[in-house]
Specification:
This protein is α+β, with helices and mostly antiparallel strands. It has 12 helices and 12 strands. It has a 6-stranded mixed beta sheet with strand order 2-1-3-6-5-4, sandwiched between helices. α11 runs antiparallel to α12. The relative contact order is 0.10.
Length: 393
């Protein structure tokens, strides 16, 4: 059976799997897979897998043929226009446009020692963008209550059909789901940065999500690693052989930079608390720096059942600052969305498992101070305008 037949059969089966999981929300892949139905098509260099499409659902794909068309936003576009859509940096008003994911991976590939690798994301014949789960939701935590493993198995099958040279897993959720479903388990290649395993003849490389902060030295290391694997893609590798390859000096240099980075200490919380402008709130320092506002009612501000609060912690093991939503107070969903939107705008990253957001520990104190001061001002405004119908005093 050739790749065309395999893809068509896979698409039909995948649609039925997804229909059984949920009838409430649309599902689709990203770049069109129909391009691989052409005769004499080569296997792609790169298959990039996030956790799921970041949208409000999109168009439901009811047939295999529809599923292979990819993201509804690409409907009617030829390959050249799709690349232009993803790679565009600014619109006519100089506002940010294009796909941040595309730009981040493309910038990584620029560090490859092979000039041809720098062109991969310019050609839809050479890369595929897809996800471990195809249900489209604005946020990952809005994925419906489904058996994620059943959905992810279809993506693992897609890997075996396309046989990409490199599979690039983005984010810890994608990595963990891959490990639960695949027979091939990822090994740590570089702590807190990269994981690797073989899946058939494909090399699987797991990294942080492209929305996360990346230092230039980490971008360089990942780009060179992808390039090295592409240049040796017919070889079976493991973390030990990769670390002992021509990448050895780059890996050591990156790890030394990680170990010698100037880390904040516990006293930094006290330093931060003195510098952060926090009007109209209570604050205290325990294991984290906590700020709380009483919510507004018809006759004043109330504490019981009316507190909104956040906490800031320095996580030395994970090497990051962590912001926690400690209580929802009035209209918790609105409060959480306000925090989420602000953190997303400021490039803080949503935790996989709880209401927390993080940024790299190397972020300067000045940036943290500005971030917190602006957030607390937004919380103050929220407190003053968020009325509660029933107040329990």
């Amino acid at each position: 059976m050739n790749i065309k037949e395999k893809l068509n059969d896979w698409a039909k089966e995948t649609v039925e799997v997804y229909k059984k999981q949920s009838t409430e929300i649309g599902f689709y892949t990203q770049t069109p897979l129909s391009i691989f139905l052409k005769d004499n098509i080569q296997k792609p260099d790169l298959l990039i897998l996030g956790i799921n499409p970041g949208s409000g659902g999109g168009i439901r794909r009811n047939t295999g043929t529809e599923l292979l068309k990819g993201n509804p936003c690409f409907e009617g576009m030829d390959s050249e226009r799709i690349i232009k859509n993803m790679s565009e940096e600014k619109d006519n008003n100089k506002n940010r446009k294009g796909w941040a994911l595309w730009h981040r991976v493309n910038n990584m590939l620029k560090f490859s020692n092979n000039e041809d690798h720098k062109k991969i994301l310019r050609n839809l014949d050479r890369f595929v963008l897809s996800n471990m789960i195809f249900f489209g939701t604005e946020k990952e935590n809005q994925i419906p209550n489904i058996k994620r493993e059943e959905c992810a198995k279809q993506t693992i099958e897609l890997i075996s059909i396309l046989q990409p040279k490199v599979v690039l897993l983005l984010g810890s959720q994608s990595r963990k789901l891959f490990d639960r479903v695949s027979e091939n388990k990822l090994e740590v290649l570089v702590p807190n940065s990269m994981y690797h395993c073989m899946s058939g003849k494909s090399h699987v490389l797991a990294i942080k999500h492209t929305a996360y902060y990346y230092s230039s030295i980490e971008m360089e290391l990942i780009g060179k690693t992808i390039g090295y694997i592409l240049d040796h893609q017919d070889e079976t590798m493991n973390s030990e052989t990769i670390r002992d390859s021509s990448l050895k000096a780059d890996i050591i240099r990156f790890e030394e930079r990680q170990n010698t980075a100037q880390l904040p200490h516990d006293n930094n919380l006290y330093s931060l608390s003195k510098r952060i402008i926090a009007k109209g709130c209570n604050k205290r320092i325990d294991s984290y720096l906590k700020y709380e506002y009483y919510c507004k009612g018809n006759n004043g501000y109330y504490r019981k059942n009316g507190i909104i609060s956040i906490g800031l912690k320095i996580d030395y093991e994970e090497k990051k600052y962590v912001l926690y939503i400690l209580s929802g107070g009035n209209h918790a969903d609105k409060f959480e969305k306000m925090i989420s939107d602000y953190c997303e705008d400021k490039k803080w990253h949503k935790s996989d498992n709880d209401l927390s957001y993080s940024v790299d520990i190397s972020t300067s104190e000045d940036v943290i101070v500005d971030f917190m001061a602006s957030l607390l001002e937004k919380m103050k405004t929220y407190r003053e305008t968020d009325l509660k119908d029933k107040i329990i005093i």
